[in-house]
Amino acid sequence: MSRGPLFENGYKPLFSGHETFPLRYGWLKKVYDAVASHDDGIASKSIFSDDTAIARFGVGKNMVSSMRYWAAACEIIEDIPGNQIRIKALGHKLFGASGLDPYMESPSTLWILHWRLCGRADRTTWFWAFNHFSHLTFERDALSKGLLAIAHERGWPRVSAATVKRDVECFVRTYAAKAASAQLSHEEALESPLTELGLIRATGKKDGFRFVRGAKSSLGDGVFAYALIEFWQRYSKSKTLSFEAIAHGPGSPGRVFALDEGDLADRLSEIEDATEGLLRWSETAGLKQVIRSADLNVEAALGLVDADFRVRERMKVA
């Protein structure tokens, strides 16, 4: 099996850009609104650096830079030629006037954002932690040492221990809620919206954390199917994809969503309905694999997530 993109020649690691601030509630919507207020949803990059940026976003200069970083990392916006920024399809789908979840009330939104951050190797710590780190429990120092080891092995230039340490700190704060205390409100403990996914929890020991593997009840079939299609398109051109690749391949749904093999098999057994026949689960002759009936189209597959939001709306009405 391929060792993944971190081990490819020419891979460029990234350990900075967030200014040490994890993604926070409301940030993506604020960035979306700021860019969308311009003609055709295209704005100058200067909206994040001009004299009115601090007033526009209501945070300090470093936080404005962090907001831009996270909006780009989550694929809400993208840079385009001419020193400009435009809104991407996911931004319109989630935060537009008719968006699925403009105030990020649905866990489906959080699962999509988590997939955007950890399903690709653009952010080295995020990808490595979910796709290569082999232990369930860890301390921040263990993650830092592991990343520095691979940096040395691969000969990545200009990777300092201090930079990696800050990146790991931001990663942990993105997924692990702070311990509740008399001085800390529930809202303050949930520093980042992605803590709600429960993928990383504190163990109770000093600087101890654990990845939470197993069934994810709030992960909808639509988001899972979309992630599978996107992974498949990157991983292989074959008309079949093995269970092993889906469960354990770097950047796979099994890895990124921290699913155990039993729950993954259950989800794959229902993939035909979730994808309207595009994908089909097969266990013929003991060979576990998914078979596709047509070419994969990631842009069209994004529409599969809509069903998860409709389910949530029906539940709210009921």
Automatic annotation (TrEMBL):
Q: Which Pfam families match?
A: DUF4007
Taxonomy, superkingdom: Bacteria
> Residues in domain DUF4007?
15-297
- The protein's name is DUF4007 family protein
The lineage, from the top, is: Bacteria, Pseudomonadati, Pseudomonadota, Alphaproteobacteria, Hyphomicrobiales
